[in-house]
Every structure is written in structure tokens, then in C-alpha cells.
């Protein structure tokens, strides 16, 4: 019988803390679609202040935050957005910017650190002289931290450089900052400085920060007033949403200071996995709360099998493909969970390799090989 659960599938799996639940129960609320929910209004004002922007808007999800942001910047038909070929917006958001927003995506290769080469971004910008044929470039999107690149951080220097390119060409810059607080903590740069060059940022509250629901988008007052209208169009206007904002408020106060601990634990896991024969983590890529781990060729480790064995011990991990998996740390994973996980992985690998060895011996005896 499983007596312990260590859920490392994502930082979205956290349960609201006692303080969050208490804040939700006691939240002062009203109708936010009418603009009169006091908790939502206070929370949005606080997020705008922290992020260094004029205004903020609570939205149900990061996906909606990105979609609204892209659509506000690309309101003219025939607009094009430059974004990474490995970015969340491009891969995991159902192509909403094109299917719902009629926005054309121009992808640029993401490097393994989550950046796109500045020269390639500039090359991707459409020449306005060709407007008879080309879509019109209006927006560049970055992602910080970059989830598919192992949760790596984009530096403030890089972000500023992309901001300068955007400005030079009259474009807007949006940052998918689902985990921007992780980046800020890992880089030691205040979050408002990290996003200074951006016209808009979407920030997930329900990831590293541990709130149960929601994201916030920030930008200028005029950006947010257009975003508010689009949120309503998309069905994201919620009435007594202060209940959710109250939990997010607590998340902001409780969790930012815990992110450093999540990053430290991610490094311990990475180092521990590198001690296990047959597994490999690029330790340099572990900058925040994510660990991507490969099963080496010839190791006989099938990742789906490994995850199945671990689940029997209450450890939940997501396979990415047959030869790699992703582990994500969050504030509800303790140091002892980390040690337990490493020891279970070690044992599971030994068991899988032994089973594979027995299978090979039986095949040999049966004359199959
Ligand atoms: C980088 C990034 N952006 C956006 C999202 C979308 O957030 P949501 O799941 O709240 O729609 C995610 C979700 O995992 C993400 O990792």
C-alpha cells in the first residue's frame, strides 16, 4: 500500500495551504465583471506594482493570459508574431493565436538555453516594403523561464536586447512569464527589472507560486483595458473572483521566498540522478525548479516503465518520451521527499536492469539470440 505521495509531475499540482484556504473563506468580494471586487482590484494593483507596469488583470489561466496578450498586440488582421519554435505558446496552447486570433506565427529556433539568436529574430521581421505579400510583424514573444528548455532563465541583458530590436522595428514585446518569479530569484534580479523591456507579461500564480488558480497579465493601462474586453469575449470574466485573488495574494507572500529552496532541491535531484548508472542530467541546465533526465542508450531503462515502478512507491513523475523524463520541484516537496525519491529511483533502476538482464538470459537460453 502506498503511504506517501511525492508529486513531481509539475509545479501546478500543489494544494492550497491553510493560509490560502482561510484567505479564500474570508475574502471580501463583489462582482469583478462590474469592476467592483475589492480583493481583485487590490490584487491587480499589487501585481502591477511588483511587475513595474501601469495595470494588471487576473485571468483564469496562463494560456488565456498569453492568448489575450498576443491578440491585443496583434489586433489588426494579417499580423504576425515571432516566437520560439519550442515555446509554450507555439506548442502547447492549441494554436489558439491562429485558430482564435487569426495571428500568423513565425517561429525562430530556440537555442537550448531558451534564447533565440538576435540575428535570427531580426531576419524574421518582415520587410514592410513587401506588405502586398507578407503578413505584418507586430510582436515578439519570449518565455522566461523557458519550460521546454529545462526551466532555464533568460537574462536581463538578453531581454533588454530583444526589447531594443522590438523598439527599433516598431514591434511590441510580450513575455510568457509563467515562471518569471523563478527566473527573478535564480538570477537575483528584481522581477520588475527583468521585464522592464516588455510591453506585456503573463505571470502564472498557479505554478511555482502555488496558488490554486489563475494568472495575471500586466502592461500599460490601455493594453489592460483592451485585455479586459477580450477576457470577457473569451468567457474569462469571473464574478466573485476575489476568492481566487485572495489565495493568490497569500501565494505571493508565502511562496516567493521558497523558490530558492525549490531550485536548491532541483540541483540535489540532478546531482543524485547523475550518480545513478544509466541516467544523465545536464547539470548546467538545472537553473530553477525543473530537472530533465535522460536514460542512456544501452542502459535498458525504459522511462515509462521507470515511472510505473515509481508510482507504486507514490512517486509521480512525467515521462517526456521513451528515453527522458521531467521532474518539477515545488514548495510542497521536502528535503526528505527528495532523498526518498532518489533512493526509490536508484532501486527502481536496479530492478529494471535486473529484469532486463533476466529477460535477455531467458531469450538466450531459448535460442532467440
Ligand atoms: C511556460 C508556460 N506558459 C504558459 C503555460 C500555460 O498555463 P496554464 O496551464 O495556466 O494555461 C504553461 C503551463 O504549464 C507554461 O509552462
Automatic annotation (TrEMBL):
GO terms for molecular function: L-allo-threonine aldolase activity. Threonine aldolase involved in threonine degradation to glycine. May play a role in the removal of L-allo-threonine. Its EC number is 4.1.2.48. The keyword Manganese does not apply. It is an enzyme of class 4 (lyase). Keywords: Lyase, Pyridoxal phosphate. GO terms for biological process: glycine biosynthetic process; L-threonine catabolic process. Pathway: Amino-acid degradation; L-threonine degradation via aldolase pathway; acetaldehyde and glycine from L-threonine: step 1/1. Belongs to the threonine aldolase family. Residues 7-294 form the Aromatic amino acid beta-eliminating lyase/threonine aldolase domain. GO terms for cellular component: cytosol. This is low-specificity L-threonine aldolase. It catalyses: L-threonine = acetaldehyde + glycine; L-allo-threonine = acetaldehyde + glycine. Transmembrane segments: none annotated. Its cofactor is pyridoxal 5'-phosphate. The modification N6-(pyridoxal phosphate)lysine is found at residue 207. The keyword Transcription does not apply. Coiled coil: none annotated.
